[in-house]
């Protein structure tokens, strides 16, 4: 999508502080962190939200969770714990229409989140 900020990050049109990249996903630091560690993981192919996961693209979700596990270990938060967040739709708090997963950690996280 030409107007999607995350697609522009994938294309290198907008800079991001990358934590991880492979041929399927990019992970980068959130520009407005909500915890000491706040990393976004996005697929390189545009998927608008969790509502758009289907038989053709479902494998990327498993790959994303594998990447999240590896990032948590490399960031030193795997043992103490972290939160994975995916917001879906306006009422769910999704502000960018490109599926993305937040990795939040580095402090005690509260529940309920809000």
UniProtKB/TrEMBL annotation:
InterPro entries: Histidine_triad_CS (IPR019808), Histidine_triad_HIT (IPR001310), HIT-like (IPR011146), HIT-like_sf (IPR036265)
Residue numbers covered by motif Histidine triad motif: 98-102
Gene3D superfamilies: HIT-like (3.30.428.10)
Signal peptide feature range: none
MF GO annotations: catalytic activity
Domain HIT as annotated: residue spans: 5-114
Catalytic residues, chain numbering: 100
Domain of life assignment: Bacteria
Name of the featured protein: HIT domain-containing protein
Protein species of origin: Gottschalkia purinilytica (Clostridium purinilyticum)
């Amino acid at each position: 999508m030409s107007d999607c900020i995350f697609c522009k990050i994938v294309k290198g049109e907008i800079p991001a502080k990358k934590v991880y990249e492979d041929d399927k996903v990019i992970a980068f630091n959130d520009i407005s962190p909500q915890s000491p560690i706040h990393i976004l993981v996005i697929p390189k192919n545009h998927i608008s939200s969790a509502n758009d996961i289907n038989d053709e693209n479902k494998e990327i979700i498993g790959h994303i969770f594998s990447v999240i596990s590896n990032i948590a270990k490399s960031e030193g938060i795997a043992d103490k714990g972290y939160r994975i967040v995916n917001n879906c739709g306006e009422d769910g708090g999704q502000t960018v229409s490109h599926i993305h997963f937040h990795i939040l950690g580095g402090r005690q996280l509260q529940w309920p989140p809000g």
